[in-house]
Design goal:
CATH topology of the largest domain: Creatine Kinase, Chain A, domain 2
CATH superfamily of the largest domain: Glutamine synthetase/guanido kinase, catalytic domain
Shape: globular
Distance between the termini: 20 Å
Helix content: 40-55%
Number of strands: 10
Largest sheet: 8 strands, antiparallel
Oligomer: single chain
Strand order of the largest sheet: 2-3-4-5-1-8-10-9
CATH architecture of the largest domain: 2-Layer Sandwich
CATH class of the largest domain: Alpha Beta
Strand content: 15-25%
């Protein structure tokens, strides 16, 4: 199974910022949104866009993996979902397609909720770079097709909140020290995010609370705001929470060394010794392992932590083991021990 390129991590920051992504949504001019398209219309749109994708300069990206969603197995669909390449609820229509580059860094979804969704993702917080690459792909496609655009409302999408510049920017962060020692800061930070037009979610796509050590920050809407404003806002918020997590790590290791070391080593030994473990326990433990890497307490690299974060999910466990189970907790523990040697 091919590993996502972001596993290798941006060493300077990936102990906190795990992954960032940019998603650009577009629709074809004078065509109904996919939900209202006839089968023939969807076919014409998918044929046109697949041809345009084939015309993209390989020096930008080579979309060497192409899937028709109706042709893939439930397991393959679940793996793509666990890698955030398709939404959980997606029409299994023969004219819904997904094109991916090697390493999953870039993907294009055709005839999902909108005609086209261009996604870029990578480790760290290089949001402007990711947007630049996504914009290059969009411009390449726009040389072949015309996108629906209104001078007053901007790019037209199936969701009102995506209308306008029609981009979603997101960063995923691991903040074990802040969520354990400084929940009051996080409560104020989440309020600031909201006031700036951003939302903070936990890994269940629910509104995050101050005790969540894994969070996702993303813009709530893209209408009435520019791409640069969205990116500037998210970069500011990411830098702010990264700076505070680092300050807390340096401060609290002096006051609570035994407590922090206990959390790190308990997490490491749970993953290394458990015979039954839930994915929730895995996520929480891996967050503390990231702090352990920062403190040089454990001999493990970010690559292994990232790999465990994805490959210990149910569909990935099914794929690498060949077992289709109702409960993966025992198998998850087996592979956690295997990854840690």
């Amino acid at each position: 199974m091919i590993e996502p390129a972001w596993f290798n991590g941006d060493v300077a920051i990936s102990d906190i910022v795990m992954l960032s992504s940019i998603n650009i949504v577009r629709n074809i001019s004078n065509a109904a949104f996919p939900l209202y398209c006839s089968t023939n219309e969807k076919k014409d749109i998918s044929d046109m866009l697949l041809k345009s994708i084939d015309n993209i300069d390989y020096s930008i990206y080579n979309y060497d993996k192409k899937y028709c969603i109706s042709d893939i197995s439930k397991l393959e669909a679940n793996i793509l979902y666990e890698r955030s390449l398709i939404p959980k609820k997606i029409a299994h229509n023969k004219h819904v397609h997904l094109c991916i580059t090697d390493g999953d860094k870039s993907s294009i979804l055709i005839n999902g909720k909108d005609h086209i969704s261009i996604r870029m993702q990578d480790s760290g917080a290089h949001l402007f770079s990711l947007y630049g690459m996504a914009e290059n792909i969009e411009r390449s496609l726009e040389s072949d097709v015309e996108f629906a655009f209104n001078k007053e409302f901007g790019y037209l999408t199936s969701s009102v909140k995506n209308t306008g510049c029609a981009i979603t920017a997101m960063s995923m962060l691991s903040i074990p020290i802040l969520s354990f020692f400084n929940t009051s800061y996080l409560e104020n930070f989440y309020k600031e995010c909201s006031s700036l037009g951003f939302i903070v979610l936990n890994d269940k796509s629910e509104k995050a609370n101050s005790s969540d050590n894994l969070i996702y920050i993303k813009n709530k809407y893209s209408f009435g705001i520019s791409e640069a404003d969205i990116l500037d806002g998210l970069v500011y918020l990411v830098n702010s929470i990264v700076d505070n997590e680092r300050k807390c790590r340096k401060r609290y290791i002096e006051e609570y060394r035994s407590l922090i070391e206990d959390k790190v080593f308990r997490s490491y030994n749970l993953l290394k010794s458990a015979r039954i473990i839930t994915y929730k326990e895995v996520k929480n433990s891996l967050s503390w392992l990231r702090a352990g890497v920062f403190y040089n307490l454990i001999k493990i690299d970010i690559y292994t932590i990232n790999k465990m974060f994805v490959f210990l999910k149910n569909a990935h466990l099914h794929a690498i083991s060949g077992y289709d189970l109702d409960d993966y907790n025992e198998l998850r523990a087996h592979y956690a021990r295997k990854f840690l040697g």
